Amino acid sequence: MSTTSPDQDTLAQAKGKRRLFPWAIGALAALAGIHVYRRFRTDLRAAWGRIEAGGRVIQTAHGEIEYGEAGDGFPVLMIHGAGGGYDHSLLVGQSILADGYRIIAPSRFGYLRSPAPEQADPQAQADRLAGLLDHLDIERAAIAAFSAGGPTGVQFALRHPHRTLALVLVCAISCVPTPDGKPWHQQSSPVRSVAAEFVYWLGLRGAQSRLLSMLGISSEMQESWSDEERARIAQLLEAMLPFRDRSLGYRLDRSLVVSPDVPLEEIRAPTLIIHAKDDTVVDWANSRQAAARIPGAESLFFEQGGHRLFGQHKRVRAGVVAFLKQVLETQSPAMRAHVSYPQFPTGFLFGTATAAYQVEGAWDEDGKGPSIWDTFAHTPGKILTGETGDVACNTYHDPQTDIDEMARLALNAYRFSVSWPRVLPEGKGAVNAKGLDYYDRLVDALLAKGITPFVTLYHWDMPQALQDRCGGFAGRECAGYFADYAEWVAGRLGDRVMHWITINEPWEHAALGHLLGKHAPGLCNPFRYVRLAHNQLLAHGTALRAIRACRPKAQVGISLSLHTIQPRTDSVRDRRAAVIADQFMNQFFLDGVFKGRYPDPFWSRMRWLRPRVQAGDMDLISQPIDFLGLNYYSRNYARHTWYVPLLQTMIDGDLWAEGESVRDGVQYTGMGWEVYPQGIYDALFRLKNEYGNPPVYITENGAAYSDTLENGCCHDPLRQQFLEAYMHKAAQAARDGADLRGYFIWTLMDNFEWATGFSKRFGLVHVDHQTQARTVKDSGYWVRDVIRAQGKEQP
Ligand code: FCB
Predict the structure, then answer these.
(1) Looking at ligand 1, which atom is closest to the CA of residue 753?
(2) CA 660 to CA 708: how far, in whole Å?
(3) Ligand 1 pocket, 460 CB below 6 A?
């Protein structure tokens, strides 16, 4: 029986309650903790899933992930919120993303710029964080992963649940600082990562809704826009979609942190930097410094950063809106709808092409003999601008500058031509050792940078001595001299050079130089024309044989220009004219090389003009080649014309006097050539269907436009558009079965464009012909990005 009084009972009950109370609180807290922890881990799992799905995960000690390349030409909004600010900046950016505005890639270079001294390997740290930026996404859970520790923390948390739980609880109580007693952002991984992730995750809960309502950016922005602006903005945003998973920010981070040598100057995207000054961690100096280096970057300064940016959100928003509008006005081509990088087959070569006379200069140095182009350009009235190739791009004296540039642009092949009179000043006989030495050094320098050389033996600069002796290729014996020259060059370079192009564009050399008088040697002689056409092919055959004899493993081909020919009207006569024009410009050379015969009716019509085709000629000409070089630019129209003797065809197309223009909605380049991307597909398909699908390298394709320098930049949207369109078509042809193996853009740098002198700029690199200063054009950076993006996107 109980001896206790009711009072004692009440007391005992109260004591019991007191004992129970902390337990109940504890249990509730534990339940809440577990609940929070579970949600945290669920989000982490989701984040990890996304990272794995979206990124190529490289397992390293720190669980780093690889990052892809960002697309140049897209706007960059960097929010440099110093100190703790960048986290909130990230949220701002992400919320805008979440709201459908996928253009903003917040950058955290302020933070990265000042790694705490105890972080053992700042470079690895920076690399890792830079990588994370590639995976920005709108998913809340992913944000948690991206925003601080990223995969390192996620992996750690998933692998070590107990330690994570402990950390999470500690963080939940103290948040900052973390167990090491240091601010979380100075912790080393993975402690820092997990702690930071948790802090973010917690912060995110509340911040998300607040931010969304605070920004209200979509509705408010749109209210202030006109219908037209709204439509254009919608279009812009649509165009951004393919890039939503890529951050443009990382490169800035990387350049600033990892290597100050990686030039911010390379950024060509419209850039707005919001500099937010904050606590003592970093100040404005970093972002100012970065902004000063990014061409055309705009800046907005805020006295306070971090969460205090929220208080100034109207200004932030106004800045962003103004930026967006300005971006729309200067819309870069990469932003047009649904742009993506063309994808080519594995092992594809990307290069640029040049020709000796157009770039080398040093026209009479180190024992070089004159070529017909030296003579022609020195003759008053022959070159539109009165200029010569005497100095050109000075590559004879300084090839390295351009080789370094190629490497920076990720180009892995280079097509250059050897100047025959530099190697054999008289065209035959004594060799000029210094000339050969130059090409020897050039090849070594290319290989040192991992660039595959493609050597063209004849790109129109016939030794003047041979022109005088036998009319150049008009004389049959010239094919023999050419073979000897080929043997000299292959003998010297063939241990390192595997790819040889015998002759460049025999049609152009024959027609422009010997029929129309526009090029050296400036003749208008139909007899010469047909001789040149045949004898160049003969020379191709003799050289091919000579190269194979001394370098059995060499890959030898010829570069032919293919022109799309279309009848001007559908009339029978115009269609017939188109057939003749096609045989004249294209089929003659194709059939000669691949089929060992010349096409009719063209060949019959030439009966009064043509040279005697000797026994064995066609066999020599049609020896199997290892690849065909395809030079493709444009389309021509043919119409029947009674007064053109024999051909009775008039071919339109070369309207360079009119230059760059848009007519009937069609873009024409600075040469007056129609931009006709479908043609490159058709040309590749013609080779596939009619000529046995030979291995093909596009050995020239490109466009001249009137490029100018502006504040150290060269914006050339039209060239980028041109290349984008043509490369996409070529890539499509490769997917559809054409055996396409490489793409050489004409040309690396603005050079001496034959009869038009320096007035036509084809380069990916702008050249100031007074100072020889080089400036990479926007299109050059775009090409680099195409190359880097290979294998990273699904076609
Ligand atoms: C090609 C030539 C090349 C360059 C481009 C624009 O026909 O082979 O040298 O002039 O045109």
Answers:
(1) 10
(2) 14
(3) no
pLDDT 10s digits, 561-601: 999 999 999 999 999 999 999 999 999 999 999 999 999 99
Distance (angstroms) between ligand 1 centre and the Cα of 305 equals: 55
Amino acid 22: pLDDT: 73
Residues in the chain: 795
Q: Are the C-beta atoms of residues 431 and 393 closer than 8 Å to each other?
A: no
For a ligand 1 pocket test, name from 631, 726, 761 the mutation site with the most ligand atoms within 8 angstroms of its C-beta. Answer: 631
Pocket probe for ligand 1: among 461, 673, 746, 750, the residue whose CB has the most ligand atoms within 8 Å is 746
C-beta 753 within 6 A of ligand 1: yes
* Active-site position among 505, 674, 724, 753: 505
The catalytic residue among 360, 405, 487, 700 is: 700
**Is there a cis peptide before residue 453, judged by omega within 30 degrees of 0?**
no
700 is catalytic: yes
- Ligand 1, atom 4, residue with closest C-alpha: 753
Q: Is the CB of 416 under 6 A from ligand 1?
A: no
Beta strands in 38-180 (DSSP E): 76-81
Residue 265's pLDDT is 60
Distances (CA, A) of 670 to 337, 656, 781: 25, 6, 21
pLDDT < 70 positions in the chain = 1-19, 43-44, 46-157, 159, 163-164, 166-291, 293-296, 304-314, 316-340, 653-658, 792-795
Q: How far is the CA of 585 from the centre of ligand 1 (A)?
A: 15
Question: Would the CB of 461 count as within 6 Å of ligand 1?
Answer: no
CB-CB neighbours of 769 under 10 Å: 17
Q: How far is CA 378 from CA 311, 372, 419, 517, in A?
A: 69, 10, 18, 15
Q: What angle do CA 738, 697, 653 make, to 5 degrees?
A: 90
Give the SS3 label for residue 586.
helix
Contact 700 CB / ligand 1 (< 6 Å): yes
415 C-alpha to ligand 1 centroid (Å): 12
Q: Cα–Cα–Cα angle for 353, 358, 360, nearest 5°?
A: 95
- The whole-number pLDDT of residue 754 equals 98
pLDDT tens for each residue of 361-393: 999 999 999 999 999 999 999 999 999 999 999
How far, in Å, is the centroid of ligand 1 from the Cα of 623? Answer: 26
* Contact predicate 51/151, CB 8 Å: yes
Say whether the peptide bond before residue 552 is cis (omega within 30 degrees of 0).
no
Q: Is-catalytic flag, 139? A: no
b/e string for 22-40 if b means 16 or more Cβ within 10 A?
eeeeeeeeeeeeeebbeeb
Alpha helix locations (H) across 241-371? 250-257, 284-293, 313-329, 356-359
For residues 768 and 703, what is the distance between their CA atoms, to the nearest angstrom?
18
| SS3 labels along 475-505 | CCCHHHHHHHHHHHHHHHHCCCCCEEEEEEC
- pLDDT the model gives residue 202: 58
* pTM exceeding 0.85: no
Which of 419, 700, 748, 761 maximizes ligand 1 atoms within 8 Å of its Cβ, making it the mutation to test the pocket?
A: 700
